Amino acid sequence: MNQIDGTALAHTLIGAAAAIVVTLGITCVVAKRIGRHNVIDVAWGLMFCGAAVAAFVGSSGHGDDLRRWLLLVLTVAWGLRLAIHIGVRSRGHGEDPRYAKLLEGKGELGIILIVYVLQGGIAFFVALPVMVGSLTHGSVGVLAYAGVLLWVVGIAFEAIGDRQLAAYKADPDRGPVMDRGLWGWTRHPNYFGDACVWVGLFLVAAEHWPGVLTILSPALMVYLLAFGSGKRVLERHMAERPGYRAYMDRTSGFFPLPPRR
């Protein structure tokens, strides 16, 4: 049974936590300056980038080098793409109505706890496969390559879904609800893509012990996306739009399926 170095693991975890805290600190300062806390959505992807870099540095001299590079490149590519997309999309807009409603009546401490501390803790927990996997010994094999393939599927769903949604918004003759392309098969192609990405990263880490122990990390991410704050909160807001409830009746809520008649 392969073992990982306890000291290296401690350094990696501390380094990743520090990277996330620094990212959150900068984000909080920016949010106060521009007057909107939805900037945390840009920082979401950047927190994982910081954790992945810290894991790569902390695992130097430990673990399999190919796995270390895979986890670094795949995580940073996903995180940067997401941060850039959300940053461009939100530029020039005010506070997200969902954040305004969530934070209504909350004091400064409540806002910090809900927006920054909670999301930072979730990011650290979800990123555990990247940290542990970077220190895991044993060569890269079939399971890891399956994880890479699932990551590709996930990033494709995110990128294609985002592009299709942007084209819909730019169309002056668009209908009341986006139901074209991937959006006709799942109401949330970007959330489904996120889930594939993080299950894929887990598979890369889980090929050798003790990476498999981080299974609760992708489980949490999938739960939040499919049943928790992701899909549930967004659809509560979107349900007010004309035609959206009919769209919900004919379109899968998460896993892509042919549209129902």
Task: Give descriptors for this structure.
261 residues; mainly alpha
Describe this structure in words.
- By secondary structure, this protein is mainly α.
- The protein has one domain (6-250).
- Helices cover 69% and strands 0% of the residues.
- The chain has eleven helices and no strands.
- It is globular, with a radius of gyration of 19 Å.
- The N and C termini lie far apart (52 Å).
- The mean pLDDT is 92.
- This is DUF1295 domain-containing protein.
- Keywords: Membrane, Transmembrane, Transmembrane helix.
- One of its GO terms (cellular component) is membrane.
Summarize the structure.
The protein is mainly alpha-helical and 261 residues long. Helices cover 69% and strands 0% of the residues.
Specify the structural class: mainly alpha
Tell me the span between the first and last alpha carbons. Answer: 52 Å
Structure annotation, total helices = 11
- Please count the beta strands (DSSP E, at least 2 residues each): 0
The mean pLDDT is 92
Shape: globular
Which residues sit in consecutive blocks of at least 5 with pLDDT less than 50? none
